[in-house]
Amino acid sequence: MSTPEQEVEYRQHRFSPPPGATEIFLVRHGESAPAKGSAPFDLVDGQADPDLASEGRDHAERVGRRLADERISALYVTTLRRTPQTAAPLAAKLGLTPEVEPDLREIHLGDWENGLFRRYTHEGHPIVEQLWCEQRWDVIPGAETMESFGGRIKAAIGRLAAANPDRRIAVFTHGGVIGEVFAQASAAKNRFAFLGADNGSISHLVVSGDDWMVRRFNDTSHLHPPFG
């Protein structure tokens, strides 16, 4: 007696990166030290360079545990020390030495560097309201232009992807940078749509040539509490 042929089943599609693509985990550095008028931060090329706060070091440890088993082949940090400090626990677990990608440093805030942006935001400075209305960092006096910022971010992501085909990498960077990456990836009309990634959060981008694919944004499940 013949048995009926098994019917073909068509399962839902499960994402996999295209051949040659690069998976990039963008990690915002852990919380940095508070700004104090009596103790200005050190500067690197005119940008504030605070250490991690104790909370930020805890963020770094949690990130290291979260990403230790994710088959990461390379680590990247910026010229500002809060990023290599955040990367250090993962680097130790993986036995990798982070490479520096200077073009993924934070937006330069001009006259509002060295903690003044935090202060003026807290005080409700009128330029802060203008910044959010116009979605432009360069309303701040002396700040880096949006064109310069966006251009260097796009170029840096392209370089990292070209250097790491079919690999997973972790990039330890800054909130403004992550916001700009995901605004470009999603072609968001609101340039600040992705501003506000939490300290120690992990966002996931897949780059295949000129295509940037958003896989996750601001994952904080390794932090406590996961939803703040």
From TrEMBL:
Region Disordered, as annotated, extends over 1-20
What CDD domains does the database record attribute to this sequence? HP_PGM_like
The record's SMART domains line, in alphabetical order, gives: PGAM (SM00855)
InterPro entries for this protein: His_Pase_superF_clade-1, His_PPase_superfam, PGM_Phosphatase
> What Gene Ontology molecular-function terms does this entry list?
phosphatase activity
Query: One Pfam family from the UniProt entry?
Result: His_Phos_1
Cellular component (GO) terms are:
cytoplasm
List the PANTHER family: BROAD-SPECIFICITY PHOSPHATASE YOR283W-RELATED (PTHR48100), HISTIDINE PHOSPHATASE FAMILY PROTEIN-RELATED (PTHR48100:SF1)
Q: What is this protein called?
A: Phosphoglycerate mutase
- Organism of origin is Amycolatopsis decaplanina DSM 44594
